[in-house]
Amino acid sequence: MTSIPQPLNPSIPGHPERSDGSPSHPAVRRRADVVLARQLAWILERFGLAGFRHLQKEAITAHLLGQDSLCVMPTGSGKSLCYQGPAVLCREHSAFPIPHSAVPTTVVVSPLLALMQDQVDALQRRGISAAVLNSAQYVYEQRVIEHQVRDGEVALLHVSPERFASPAFITLLCDSPLSAIVVDEAHCVSMWGHDFRPDYAALGPRIACVRQAHPCCSLHAYTATATLPVRGDIARSLGLREPHVELVGSFDRENLLLRVERRVNLDRQLIDLCRAYEPGSGIIYCPRRADTEQLAEMLCHVGLDARAYHAGMETDLRREVQDWFMAPARPGRIAVATVAFGMGIDHPAVRFVAHTFLPSSLELYHQEIGRAGRDGGPAECVIFWTPDDVEWWRDVLFGEERYARREVEVDEDRALLSLLIEANEYCAATACRHAILLNHFDDPTEDCETMCDNCRTASQGQKGSRDQGTRDVGQVLAPAPEISNLKSDEPSER
Questions:
Q1: Helix (H, G, I), strand (E, B) or coil at 183
Q2: pLDDT in tens, 91-114
Q3: Which residues pair with 106 in a beta bridge?
């Protein structure tokens, strides 16, 4: 394996650059460039890769230079390598200038326990020292991992944002050698994001406390989808040091056919979609757990290979469904799932992604359709929708009684409403769907001409009419009509 000189991270003694990442002398700059190139080559070799994907090299460089960063990299861009590579490099290369027992840890904050465990298992299979710390473990297991972190024996430690609420955990990090803190799914810190979580919003001051004890510890935020206001919220809330590196990938997925279809006979519509792509695999997203089980049973009844997946299932059963879906020897698998499915799923040949209901935001929708066509081949993404979907979401998210009293005064509530309305307007629009999505993320583009239903209709000389399904905030606040076939006491999953 390639021999690597001393690392660039300023948390390590002998670092040849100033704390802002800029070389202190032209000769040092030349040497730093050589060192960086060799470190990048080492990471490629260690992970068995021929080259980096778009923005991976730049994101890894920010880690190696010890600069804070905000990386918006669409689903399938390989975000995990950007922080795993530098962490493994610091631990394994032969020219480390400090004792092996004091190698600093990279802390990774992630919202899903199952995803954390999957990543740790994959790293350990590669011979990489990784661990996860969570409340489901026995106390003695937690103590063993804590001792390993304190002694510098763990390259990557995965934790939930709730863990940072523990003063004992903050003390552990302050007393342990740290190289970097990584916040995955960073859009959760912003109430204007599609998945706001208070525990994420509280991370900033807690991370700042840790960085007071480790001034050279860098902070890196990763997300697959974030608009310009959300990116600003992330930087402010987490306290990214200036000048921080901001990397934003393209949101364009030219190989995806985007369609919206009125939900009329959902069973028939789904069967036709699945049959059209046999033996290709697909993902069908539903708003409720019961829907996943009912639709999976229906698809199996007509001879299709389908299984349900949702957060209410036992952990072992969820893992079994994930393994079943990912198995290369079984084409034609269809996962019928809530939003709990998809994170960490890297199936290259998903030929379609269907939503049986209005997505709760364009950010979430873009993230979920990003699981289609990762092999570069054509794939279809379709929403089965009706205009009343937005009002059903309104009652599920906020409660019908509050809306009847028009009690939507909290900023967070209004932010969620805005996201719903944007998603509803996307479904009702007659303009190019690719252009609508990319404009939403401040990544403007020309009309796709052939890769969405609206452009295909226009190219055939047919006049599209705007569906009378859009709502402004005032209309959404009005009492909802009775939607008997969708009412349920079961909460949706977000």
A1: strand
A2: 876 444 444 445 789 999 998 776
A3: 156, 180
